[in-house]
Amino acid sequence: MKVAIASGKGGTGKTLLSTNLASYWSKRQPVVLADVDVEEPNDALFLPFSRLNQEDKFKFIPSWHADACILCGQCQEICNFNAIVQLENEIMVFDELCHSCYACSELCPTQALPMIPHKIGELKHSQEGNFSFVESRLRVGEEQAVPLIAQTHQYVDAHFSPQTIMLYDCPPGTSCPMIEATKEADFVILITEPTPFGEHDVKLAMKAMQKTSKTYGVVINRSDAGDDHLRQYCKRNHIPVLATIPFDRQIAILYAQGKLVYEEIPSVRAALDQIIEFIQRL
């Protein structure tokens, strides 16, 4: 079972829900939480586990060999991402724009653009009891999060059985990283807050899930801090509200201290029970 935890807007409680849900669920069965918010992963702040594995992650980019190049220009013409520019006597490769499609390298008549590895980030794997944690972190300055997210999915698939509950803490928003992070999920939890900004952005996330034919439900965080518009919207559109988490100063205090709040806040524990029961009925 693969469950993605996403949000249209940042700051709505995605990390809070991901870490607490994964830890609480692991009391019942094996769980792996993958932090695929690779540009700003922060689940590890709440999960100081012993590390089992760490590895660098790469994408492949073309490397121009001047001695072999005849400056025919085919590489520039075939590149859909403007990652290759031909000057008068030189080919320039812009690593950050390359999508590793291999087209320039494969079509080069003189093999002047062999593909070479380029480090884009690193992956860390740790574990405590039934709870496994995988974090991927993009290198500073790298433009593309999608290749690292895809490789993290491959790592989880290769190292955990289908019987393991797989949770993915996804990037916020509705752009390519969020779509890549949720595309393999059996179910998507959209966490939001009952404010105009939260309602606006979660509706965008809902549209993205509808376009990708994903089954999804909503968790409303700080549920008593705003109005009832979001809950009514979900009701009118038959979107399940899995649980609500009340606005509670003590939750913020524990979160700021890097603690898992379900261990001390009964209302959070009750919300997690509702989410798990809903997903297990699917």
From TrEMBL:
Q: Which domain of life is it from?
A: Bacteria
Q: Where is the 4Fe-4S ferredoxin-type domain?
A: 60-90, 91-118
Enumerate the SUPFAM superfamilies for this protein: 4Fe-4S ferredoxins, P-loop containing nucleoside triphosphate hydrolases
Q: Provide this UniProt record's keywords sorted from A to Z.
A: Iron, Iron-sulfur, Metal-binding
Whether Acetylation counts among this entry's keywords is: no
Keyword Iron-sulfur recorded: yes
What Gene Ontology terms describe what this protein does at the molecular function level?
iron-sulfur cluster binding; metal ion binding
Q: Which PANTHER family match?
A: 4FE-4S CLUSTER CONTAINING PARA FAMILY ATPASE PROTEIN
Q: Quote the protein name from its UniProt record.
A: MinD superfamily P-loop ATPase
Q: Which organism is it from?
A: Microbacter margulisiae
